[in-house]
Amino acid sequence: MKALAINGSPRPGGNTAILLRHVCDELENEGIATEIFQLGGRKVAGCIACYKCFEAKDKRCAVTDDAVNDCIAKMDQADVILIGSPTYFADCTAATKALMERAGFVARANGDMFKRKIGAAVVAVRRAGAIHAFDSINHLFTITQMIVAGSNYWNIGVGREIGEVAKDQEGVLTMQTLARNIAWLLRKIGA
Ligand SMILES: Cc1cc2nc3c(=O)[nH]c(=O)nc-3n(C[C@H](O)[C@H](O)[C@H](O)COP(=O)(O)O)c2cc1C
C-alpha cells in the first residue's frame, strides 16, 4: 500500500509540507508507505486542450517538458493520493490547478485510471479561503471516481510564516485523524 502526497506549494518545507508530513507520518505508523512529491515551485503549465491524451490513451500528457507526467505516473502507482496546497486568493495554487487539469484529463482519457483510489485534500491557510481551495481539490477526486476520505474537521491548517502551522494543534490533529481514517478505509477495501 502506498500513499503519494503532492505538495502544490512553492515552499517545499512550508506549512502545506508540514501538514502533509503529519498525514504521512501517521500513515507510516499504520504500515502504509508514503512519498511526498514536490510540485509547486517547478515549471508546471495548465492543459492546452490538445486532446491528444484521448487519442494516445497511454496514461501520459502530450506536454512532456515539465513534471506533470512524472507525477501522473506516481499517482497511477499509488493507492492513496493526497493533494496539498496553500490557499492563494481563496483557491489552490496555480501549480495545483495545472496538475489537476492535466492529470484529470489523462485519467478520464484512460478509463478513469484513478478510479477507487482514496483521495484527500490538505490545505494551509493564513486566514480565509481554505474551504474553497479544499473544495477545488475535491472536485478532481469526485469526478474521477475516487473515494474521498474525511477527518473530524475539514483538512486545513492555519499559519502564515513557514512552520507556523505546527502551532495549530487542531489542524495537526485533523491531519492525524485523516490518516487513521485513510488507513481504516484501505484495510476495509482490501487495497
Ligand atoms: C500569492 C499568495 C496568496 C495568498 N492568498 C491567501 C488567501 O487568499 N487567504 C489566506 O488566508 N492566505 C493566503 N495566503 C497565505 C498562505 O496561504 C499561507 O501563508 C500558507 O500557510 C502558505 O503555505 P506554504 O507555507 O505551504 O506555502 C497567500 C499567500 C500567497 C503567497
CATH structural fold name: Rossmann fold
What is the CATH first-level class name? Alpha Beta
Number of helices: 6
Distinct bound molecules: flavin mononucleotide
- The chain-level structural class is alpha/beta
Query: How would you describe the oligomerization state of the chains in this entry?
Result: single chain
Structurally, how many domains make up the residues? Answer: 1
Please outline the major beta sheet.
Answer: 6 strands, parallel
Radius of gyration: 15 Å
Total strand segments: 6
Instruction: State the CATH architecture.
Output: 3-Layer(aba) Sandwich
Helix content: 40-55%
Global shape:
globular
Bin the strand percentage. Answer: 15-25%
How would you describe the overall organization of this protein?
Strands 1, 2, 3, 4, 5 and 6 form a six-stranded parallel β-sheet that branches. 42% of the residues lie in helices and 17% in strands. It has 191 residues and is α/β, with parallel strands linked by helices. Helix 4 links the parallel strand 3 and strand 4. The protein has one domain: 3-Layer(aba) Sandwich (Rossmann fold). Helix 4 packs parallel to helix 5. Flavin mononucleotide binds next to helix 1 and strand 4.
Per-chain topology:
Elements (H helix, E strand, L loop, with lengths): L1 E6 L7 H15 L3 E6 L13 H5 L11 H10 L2 E7 L7 H16 L8 E8 L4 H14 L3 E2 L7 E3 L10 H21 L2
Parallel strand pairs: 1-2, 1-3, 3-4, 4-5, 4-6
Helix pairs in contact: 1-6, 3-4, 4-5
The chain binds flavin mononucleotide.
Flavin mononucleotide binds next to helix 1 and strand 4.
